[in-house]
Amino acid sequence: MSSSMKLSPGQATAYTALESACDASHLVLLRGDPGCGRTTLAEALSTARGGVILKVRDLYVRVESNADALLDEQALTMLDTAISQHDLVIFDDFDDIVRTLHTPYGNERAFAWAAGMKTLLDRAKARGKTFVLTGSGGHYEHNRDIVIVGVL
Fold it and tell me: Which of 9-23, 77-91, 132-146 has the lowest mean pLDDT?
């Protein structure tokens, strides 16, 4: 971790757990309430390990039109590109995209997104890459490959 990065004692403990989780698994969920420091920890990890952070707001623009499926495809393509170019990919505020998919017409989109993410996560694992999702949790906790790190 960069010596210029200042972490609270709780964040420092979570950071140590995050590094251990990344060493143990290809898929890590860094979860905690808004404002707890998830993004700060993600930035520290990215700095230390040379990864890339993709923020949902940078990847995905919600458009209320038939173009949504194309945007989903572009976001998945950007994630796939990041996985092919970096050993560590951090998808910050992952919950935001899940909330976007839960629209009145979104069930098919949500299923398509989940299938696309499963493919990406499997590809990351096969390539020996580490994929970190940050958010408040609940969406991938059932995945038996995931290591969950909580931030208090």
Answer: 132-146
User: How many whole angstroms separate alpha carbon 129 and alpha carbon 119?
Assistant: 13
Element (H, E) at 20: helix 9-24
Which tens digits make up the pLDDT trace of 55-85? 877 665 544 445 565 667 777 888 899 999 9
Q: Are 3 and 124 in contact (CB under 8 A)?
A: no
Which class for 40: exposed (0-12), middle (13-18), buried (19 or more C-beta within 10 A)? middle
Query: Which stretch of DSSP H or E encloses residue 53?
Result: strand 52-55
d(CA 106, CA 17): 35
Handedness of CA 127, 93, 32, 112 (dihedral sign): negative
Contact assessment for residue 113 and residue 79, using Cβ atoms and an 8 Å cutoff: no
HSE, CB side, 13 Å, CA atoms: give it for residue 77: 6
